[in-house]
Amino acid sequence: MNKLGLLGGMSWESTVSYYQAINRGVNARLGGLHSAPLIISSVDFAHIEQLQHKGEWDKTADILIREAKHLESAGAKAILICTNTMHKVAAEIEQNISIPLIHIADATGRELQRNKVKKVGLLGTRFTMEQTFYTSRIEECFEIEVVTPNTQQQDIVHNIIYEQLCKGVICVESRNAYIEIINALAAEGAEGIILGCTEIALLVQQHHTKIRLYDTTAIHASAAVDFALSPLQGNNGEAILGK
Question: A Gene Ontology molecular-function term (predicted)?
């Protein structure tokens, strides 16, 4: 198997989900006592969060570039950033490593295409919903329209992520607030909803709503399993990543 390098800790709550999903995915395919060969670099999210809210993305990139290089030196054959928001600096990380970066928006876009989705709602941190690094990749690379909540709703989604979910706090009232926002996006024509923050799936699962949910943690982890179990092709693993 190809060894995977995980950039985690943003937050550690969702990194646990990645670890479980990748190992379970490998075991489901290989059986027995098989598990995934993984290397994890788990950063201190308090520092990252402060830099995010100051808009100092270049400094967050420096931190993750350093950790990605460590993972590559330790034998990782591909890198996963175990968070949607920090894909804002994915390009900078890719430029500083010689192994593939499995991009969460690409994995999600391919899943949406397989389901023939043409218009999708997006929930995530305010950075992911407001800025274009995520939405434009889905729209331009996969020709899928992305709709986001209004400003007031974005505040609700963002605050619940940072004040509750990143701390492992699961609140029924917060789930109900998310469901209302999901229903509003569906009313705008969204055929499904991207759970575009890796912690959201801790709060909202498919059985909570009839609207199709796309759990980016599960989708990203599945793409990682594909890579782990596939022979490398080309210097950058292009065949595996579907590029």
Answer: amino-acid racemase activity
83, 125, 135, 198: which is the annotated catalytic residue? 83
DSSP string, 132-197: HHHHHHHHHHH--EEE---HHHHHHHHHHHHHTGGGT---HHHHHHHHHHHHHHHHTT-SEEEE-S
- Which option is the CATH number for 4-104+219-241: 3.40.50.1860, 3.10.105.10, 3.30.70.20, 3.60.150.10? 3.40.50.1860
Q: Which residue in 148, 197, 216, 217 is the catalytic one? A: 197
Q: Does residue 171 carry a catalytic annotation?
A: no
Distance in angstroms (rounded) separating the CA atoms of residues 161 and 203: 10
**197 labelled catalytic:** yes
DSSP state of 212: E
**Each residue's pLDDT expressed in tens, for the chain with a length of 243 residues:** 999 999 999 999 889 999 999 999 999 999 999 999 999 999 999 999 999 999 999 999 999 999 999 999 999 999 999 999 999 999 999 999 999 999 999 999 999 999 999 999 999 999 999 999 999 999 999 999 999 999 999 999 999 999 999 999 999 999 999 999 999 999 999 999 999 998 999 999 999 999 999 999 999 999 999 999 998 544 444 444 544
Read off the pTM: 0.90
Residue 80 CA to residue 35 CA, distance in Å, equals: 17
